[in-house]
């Protein structure tokens, strides 16, 4: 893709929702290149980093991720809200204690960002709303019969989250990250059976999530059989809304 950059005039707080392997990470990378003001948080990358560092949260999440199941909502909320604080986008983390008095954190007015993979459930969406107002929710749609063919050829640079595909976007040097030259690995949840379980989870939890955002009027759907088909439509819509 040509690396044209564009300026956004309004703060864009974007969520990407879509089936496992639909291309959320791929579109995120392209959006970051095109709109330099954006930054991104990938919930899956944050979890994998915790698994690698053997944090208590990572140890708790590891077996669920390997089984293609969702990590509990309260764990995810703690993880994401502390990341939002550490990036300076909000002033304080969310409280997950049911007895505490809810308090609204301050939001950095110019913060423009993409959340890839969070929220995943209607409960996560409701909690996020108390932290940051989201103004654009993208539902990426590609038939699972097409996605399934990509999964076995995905390779990742675990420390950065950079994603490759031996057929679609191979690294310059086989098996090596383009930026660092470090070795690429495959995700433990990228077996076909685990992918099917992840898809099942997605189908069960995404309906109420999408309904939540539909009711708020910020949901936008984009379909395509490839990321190259989806990207230009996504760019045009972002420029229409925020350009
Ligand atoms: P993740 O990490 O969020 P998933 O399952 O939602 O995982 P995934 O697998 O990361 O999503 P993606 O980002 O949508 O997929 O897709 P991608 O990486 O961009 O593309 C997939 C592959 O296809 C890549 O190799 C890419 O190069 C290639 N590709 C892209 N486009 C094309 C194309 O057009 N053609 C071809 N041929 N190839 C293409 O979450 C992982 C786990 O963490 C936990 C859960 O356990 C989850 O299963 N988790 C959460 N749990 C609870 N709540 C949350 N909010 C959670 N977030 C994560
Ligand atoms: Mg991803």
Give the secondary structure arrangement, pairings included.
Blueprint: E1 13-18, H1 24-34, E2 39-42, H2 43-52, H3 56-66, H4 73-86, E3 113-116, H5 122-131, E4 136-141, H6 144-151, E5 154-157, E6 162-165, H7 192-216, E7 219-223, H8 227-242
Parallel strand pairs: 1-3, 1-4, 2-3, 4-7
Antiparallel strand pairs: 5-6
Helix pairs in contact: 1-8, 2-3, 4-5, 5-7
The structure holds P1-(5'-adenosyl)-P5-(5'-guanosyl) pentaphosphate (G5P) and magnesium ion.
P1-(5'-adenosyl)-P5-(5'-guanosyl) pentaphosphate (G5P) binds at residues 18, 20-26, 43-44, 47, 64-65, 68-71, 76, 117-120, 124, 150, 154, 163-165, 167-169, 189, 198, 226-228.
Structural account:
This protein is an alpha/beta fold. The chain has 2 domains: 10-38 and 135-243, Rossmann fold, CATH 3.40.50.300; 42-111, no CATH class. The chain is 43% helix and 14% strand. The protein has 8 helices and 7 strands; from the N terminus they run E-H-E-H-H-H-E-H-E-H-E-E-H-E-H. The chain has helices at residues 24-34, 43-52, 56-66, 73-86, 122-131, 144-151, 192-216, 227-242; strands at residues 13-18, 39-42, 113-116, 136-141, 154-157, 162-165, 219-223. Strands 2-3-1-4-7 form a 5-stranded parallel sheet, sandwiched between helices. It has a two-stranded antiparallel sheet with strand order 5-6. Strand 5 (154-157) and strand 6 (162-165) form a beta hairpin. The radius of gyration is 17 Å and the shape is globular. The two termini are 20 Å apart. The site of magnesium ion (MG) has 4 residues, from helix 1.
């Amino acid at each position: 893709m040509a690396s044209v950059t564009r300026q956004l005039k309004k703060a864009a707080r974007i969520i990407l929702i879509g089936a496992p392997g639909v291309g959320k990470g791929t579109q995120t990378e392209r959006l970051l290149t095109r709109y330099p003001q954006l930054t991104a948080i990938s919930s899956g990358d944050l979890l994998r980093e915790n698994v690698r560092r053997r944090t208590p949260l990572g140890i708790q999440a590891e077996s669920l991720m390997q089984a293609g199941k969702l990590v509990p909502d309260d764990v995810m909320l703690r993880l994401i809200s502390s990341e939002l604080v550490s990036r300076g986008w909000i002033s304080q983390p969310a409280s997950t204690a049911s007895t505490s008095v809810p308090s609204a954190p301050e939001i950095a007015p110019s913060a423009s960002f993409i959340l890839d993979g969070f929220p995943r459930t209607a409960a996560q969406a409701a909690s996020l709303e108390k932290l940051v107002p989201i103004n654009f929710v993208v539902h990426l749609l590609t038939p699972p019969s097409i996605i399934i063919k990509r999964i076995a050829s995905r390779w990742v640079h675990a420390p950065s989250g950079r994603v490759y595909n031996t057929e679609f976007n191979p690294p310059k040097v086989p098996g090596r990250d383009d930026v660092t030259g470090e070795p690429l690995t495959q995700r433990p949840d990228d077996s076909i059976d685990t992918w099917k379980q992840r898809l099942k989870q997605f189908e069960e939890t995404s309906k109420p999530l999408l309904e939540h955002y539909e009711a708020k009027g910020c949901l936008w759907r984009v379909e395509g059989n490839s990321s190259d088909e989806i990207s230009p439509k996504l760019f045009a819509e972002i420029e229409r809304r925020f350009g």
